[in-house]
Amino acid sequence: MSQPTQPQPAASDRSPRFLVIGAGMSGILAAIRLEEAGFGDYAIYEKADRLGGTWRENTYPGITCDVPSHFYSYSFAPNPEWSHRFSPGAEILAYFEDVARRYGVERRMRYGEEVTRCAFEDGRWRIETSTGRTDAGDFVIAATGVLHHPAYPDIEGLEDFEGALFHSARWDHDVPLADARVGVVGTGSSAIQIVAALVDRVESLTLFQRTAQWIAAVENPAYTDEEKQEFRRRPEAMRAIRDETARAFVDGFANVLVDADSPVLGLIEQNCRENLEQSVADADLRERLRPCYRAACKRLIMSDGFYEAIQRPNAALVTEPIEGVEKSGVRTRDGALHELDVLVLATGFRVDRFVRPMRVTGRGGVVLDDVWQSGPFAYLAIAVPDFPNFFLLNGPNSPVGNFSLIDVAEMQMGYVLQLVEATLAGGASEVDVRAEATQRFDAERREAAKSTIWATGCRSWYLDREGLPTAWPFTLDRFRQEMARPRLEDYAMRSPERPAHGRAPS
Ligand code: NAP
């Protein structure tokens, strides 16, 4: 049964109300920025019983973020306590919990409330949650994440397996691993981290590889007590690391991925090839680990331990295709049965979901699912025509890759706030991206996508159903420029039927 909604004052008497959906990295950021901007009327809806998004859900052994921690932090909340250059997942989760508490936004989170319906009716967004709670707001910020819905492979007989079976993002910590024969399906970032962390803890580890991966060597030193002391004393030392890392990742990586002809890509591939040649002793194993596509076509994997792990005596790399799963293990096409106690599906995510399965209905009853029928898109990754006052963080066409998505979300939230301020300053209450602007952007995006490294002939989660990369295909510098100031001519602002908000823009 629906719970009653709090009585709302008339539109003219109140500041706009914001509904933030999702309490992961972007949702926490949205709330903090709203507070700072003086928009104190907001609620954060979170379906789980705690915050943290991807860092709450991914707890597999070996989980770290392969973006340096001083870069993978909010710009306004540097953390002198990071233990390593690439810190483990549990530490990252604790960081988000700490920031949410310190900035006073944790108390505004409504846990256990999955937003199931979100509809633009009579000029306001009305939501309904899984518990029947309803709420209404003027603006929605969808901070629902990208790598969120596990993708389960279509392998025959999975349900027949009598051992423990789970997805990498749903790790079952009750399953004992010592003395276990463990199989891992997949060779993405998750699988590579799992293999490196597990091999010495289990009886045997079998990695089922469909596609080999390019792997860049990285080192992950711990910060010393003296270094942390220095960070506490001089926060500018953290800022310097952050700026340096950001520049290196953006100039040396993000900006070159979008130009498949960039000579820098050759250097990246050379680095990966040398890593393979120098790290893998056995020629046969080396060849089976050698990819047959260009480095960085798939998201580049950074690892300091995978090659070592896969050469351990108790590790096996299986490159025969999987025929099916049986009660005692995995059968490959050559007829071999690989007997297992535990099977981990490190098979990635359904990356085209975004806010769905929530039913989102925009102006005139238009349904987001229908609008996104041939694939999700958003103007500058932020807005969709006919969904006024509805903004996505890390939404479709957003930059993704080996750089900080926190940095990306911060740029996006800055843009959204400017847009809201401009709308209110103009005396309007609704802002809707124009269809022509969206089409223009999408056509340009699709054209640019063809010359990115991601389009050079590999399968990856970056590609849509037609095989076209969906991520931001321009430089990250261009994204920063676009986000710096909204082009207001690309939006229609209106104030239908109700007066403008009384609040003066800050
Ligand atoms: P992923 O990169 O999508 O990899 C999925 C793997 O599963 C691929 O190797 C794929 O093979 C394999 N696979 C899927 N279906 C299969 C099937 N039916 N049979 C055999 N193999 C199958 O997923 P992920 O490793 O979870 O990583 C997803 C993303 O999460 C990453 O790209 C990254 O953005 C993020 N991530 C980041 C970090 C970090 O440190 N920052 C860590 C983990 C994850 P094919 O290659 O042949 O398709």
Helicity, as a percent range = 25-40%
Secondary-structure class = alpha/beta
Shape: globular
In DSSP terms, counting alpha (H) and pi (I) runs of 4 or more, how many helices? 13
The CATH C-level class name of the largest domain: Alpha Beta
Number of strands: 21
- Adjacency order of strands in the biggest sheet: 3-2-1-7-19
Task: Give Rg in angstroms.
Answer: 24 Å
CATH superfamily of the largest domain: FAD/NAD(P)-binding domain
How far is the first residue's CA from the last residue's CA? 40 Å
CATH architecture classification name of the largest domain: 3-Layer(bba) Sandwich
% residues in beta strands: 15-25%
Can you tell me the residue ranges where pLDDT is under 50 for at least 5 consecutive residues?
Answer: 1-13, 499-506
Q: On the 0-100 scale, what is the average pLDDT? A: 94
Largest sheet: 5 strands, parallel
Number of domains: 2
Bound molecules: NADP nicotinamide-adenine-dinucleotide phosphate
Determine the CATH topology of the largest domain: FAD/NAD(P)-binding domain
How are the secondary structure elements laid out?
Layout: E1 18-21, H1 25-36, E2 42-45, H2 54-57, H3 89-102, E3 109-110, E4 115-121, E5 124-129, E6 134-137, E7 139-142, E8 164-167, E9 181-185, H4 189-198, E10 204-208, E11 215-217, H5 225-233, H6 235-257, H7 263-279, H8 283-288, E12 301-303, H9 306-310, E13 315-318, E14 322-326, E15 329-332, E16 337-339, E17 342-345, E18 359-361, H10 368-371, E19 390-392, H11 405-425, E20 430-433, H12 435-449, H13 476-484, E21 491-494
Parallel strand pairs: 1-2, 1-7, 2-3, 4-18, 7-19, 8-17, 9-10, 9-17, 10-13, 11-12
Antiparallel strand pairs: 4-5, 5-6, 14-15, 15-16, 20-21
This protein binds NADP nicotinamide-adenine-dinucleotide phosphate.
